[in-house]
Design a protein that fits this description.
Layout: E1 2-7, H1 11-25, E2 33-39, E3 49-50, E4 53-57, E5 69-72, H2 83-89, E6 100-101, E7 106-107, E8 112-113, E9 118-119, E10 124-125, E11 130-131, E12 136-137, E13 142-143, E14 148-149, E15 154-155, E16 160-161, E17 166-167, E18 172-173, E19 178-179, E20 184-185, E21 190-191, E22 196-197, E23 206-208, E24 213-214
Parallel strand pairs: 1-2, 1-5, 2-4, 6-9, 7-10, 8-11, 9-12, 10-13, 11-14, 12-15, 13-16, 14-17, 15-18, 16-19, 17-20, 18-21, 19-22, 21-23
Antiparallel strand pairs: 3-4, 23-24
Length: 223
């Protein structure tokens, strides 16, 4: 049984735990994973228990945990751009990050999923879709054919991403959004919940609405 440790005790950690439990339930006599705990930097979260899994220390403690695999569960509008730094601070090599795919997700045979990615229940990766390392895909999101999603990007729940779309690294796509075919979303961009994206979103900018437009002066935009 492979021991795993989850990074972050926020809402996404519940989805990661649920996915691991569902994987283990496929073969109860020989479960694949054992969750050894959660690492989180928020002092108030130390000792907290999330779905039976205890917060056992800050992110830096990953260096002390030998033989474990790690899964990132940290991502929100406030924290998504911190993901690369969180991964770096673990000190763990790429091979020590586990890819978690919920059994009720659908992954086409020709789709590719990167190291340390998380794909939750009900989500679909269509043929020739490519998802990078440490990507988080929440529940019921569709990534259509020939779409590419960059490393460290977050796709929230209930998103429709149509064909031939390019989403850069470390972007955040809000829940319930729709991305029209062939649009490009730049590195570090943020697309608000419920947006309908019919034109390109530049790197580091914040777009929302139907049709999606730039939110001028957003505190979440990169200067």
């Amino acid at each position: 049984m492979q021991p795993v440790v989850i990074l972050g005790a926020g809402g996404n950690s519940l989805g990661v735990i649920d996915a691991i439990d569902a994987i283990n339930a496929l073969d109860p006599k020989s479960p694949r994973y054992r969750i050894d705990g959660i690492l989180d930097d928020i002092p108030a979260n130390q000792g907290r228990v999330v779905l039976g899994c205890k917060v056992i220390g800050p992110i830096e403690d990953a260096k002390k945990l030998k033989g474990c695999r790690f899964v990132n569960g940290i991502s929100s509008v406030e924290t998504f751009r911190l993901i690369p730094e969180v991964i770096r601070r673990t000190g763990a090599p790429a091979a020590d990050f586990e890819t978690i795919v919920h059994p009720r997700a659908t992954i086409a045979a020709s789709a590719r999923v990167g190291r340390g990615a998380v794909i939750l229940a009900g989500s679909v990766l269509c043929p020739e879709a490519v998802v990078g390392d440490h990507v988080i895909i929440l529940q019921n999101t569709s990534v259509n054919h020939h779409t590419r999603v960059g490393d460290f990007t977050t796709l929230s729940a209930g998103i429709t991403i149509l064909g031939y779309i390019e989403i850069g690294a470390n972007a955040f796509i809000g829940g319930g959004s729709t991305l029209a075919p062939m649009v490009k979303v730049g590195d570090g961009a943020l697309v608000g919940a419920g947006a309908v994206v019919i034109r390109d979103v530049p790197a580091g900018r914040v777009y929302a609405g139907n049709p999606a437009r730039e939110i001028a002066g957003s505190p979440h935009a990169l200067s």
